[in-house]
Amino acid sequence: MSLPPPKLLLVNDDDFLQHDTGLDHPESPARLQAVYQRQALGFPDHRLPADAISTLPPRPAARRELTAIHTEEYLLRLEEAALAERGYLDHPDNRLSYDTYRVALLAAGAGLAAIDRLEAANATAAGALIRPPGHHAERSTPLGFCFLNNAAVAARYWQQRHDRKKIMIIDWDAHHGNGIQAAFEDDPEVFYLSIHEHPTWSFPGTGWSEERGQGAGRGTTLNLPLPPGSGDDLVLRLLDEVIDPALQSFAPEALIIAAGFDGHHHDDMSGLSYSSELYRRLGRHAAASAARHCPGRLLFLLEGGYQPDLLVRCLGNFLEGLLAVPPDHPGR
């Protein structure tokens, strides 16, 4: 008798630690190293059933998969900058090292490997525990620690390789995903929804509520900017009153979560004030949304979250939510 597929597939690899940003950079290998160490122990601070999770190595994204989102000229520029060990590309925030281009290819390809497994019914949900993050990267521009737009590459791949035409990307990183929005703002078949700190106070200064897409894509961009200090109650209200109706109306064939954990009130990269418990609620919402609209086609991609121990705690809560593990210590 064959065993049922695991509920959750996690893509990870020690190569993601080889993107060297230096000891004083917030997007450091230490954040993912902390996640991998706890994962190797079975996330002992969380009650995740071991038989519900399996792992998958990434594979590098192919050139044709990347040029669906990025220009050939930009890919060459990024590769040359890394191999020349220039230190950063375009802005000191975008630090790189000799291995950065190779690792960025793996980060962009991790979601694609997971999508193939989801489409083969080898899991009901998947996540990529990767770096560098991606949602700020634009067609020919790195920005905000991001070089390749992992979520945008995954969305196009899901459409082109597996013929899933209607993709919804929900981004709850504390910062607006300008790169994802720019990639799809005129595309009626990719719905980009972002909850983030208001651009008046937050990097990168985009994601105003009036930005709703353009041309044929008008109405398939939805920005929900929050004032500094916003906490769980406002996000949960938006899930019920705005996001659920948007999901119902758009009826996606696949769901991608740009999962940033930097909205926590102890992460100093934003002024938001989320609790650890909110991420469990977000996990439950993601699982329920996928079950309702696109069963077996839920992918999350790690974006921000810059305090390693806090990232582990919030990610563990999110995974508990995805796997419908009831909380034992609310607010943990």
Q: Structural class of the secondary structure composition?
A: alpha/beta
Give the total of beta strands: 10
Instruction: State the helix count.
Output: 9
**Major beta sheet, strand line-up:** 2-1-5-10-9-6-7-8
CATH structural class: Alpha Beta
Query: What is the second-level CATH architecture?
Result: 3-Layer(aba) Sandwich
Mean pLDDT, rounded to whole units? 95
Total domains, how many? Answer: 1
* Name of the CATH homologous superfamily: Histone deacetylase domain
Stretches where pLDDT is under 50 for at least 5 consecutive residues are none
Describe the main β-sheet briefly: 8 strands, parallel
Q: What is the CATH topology assignment?
A: Arginase, Chain A
Task: Tell me about this structure.
- The chain is α/β, with parallel strands linked by helices and 332 residues long.
- It has a single domain, classed as Arginase, Chain A.
- It has nine helices and ten strands.
- It has helices spanning 29-40, 63-66, 72-83, 100-119, 150-162, 178-184, 232-250, 276-293, 308-322, and strands spanning 8-11, 53-56, 88-89, 91-95, 125-128, 167-171, 190-197, 221-226, 254-259, 298-302.
- Strands 2-1-5-10-9-6-7-8 form an eight-stranded parallel beta sheet, with helices on both faces. Strands 3-4 form a two-stranded antiparallel ribbon.
- The mean pLDDT is 95.
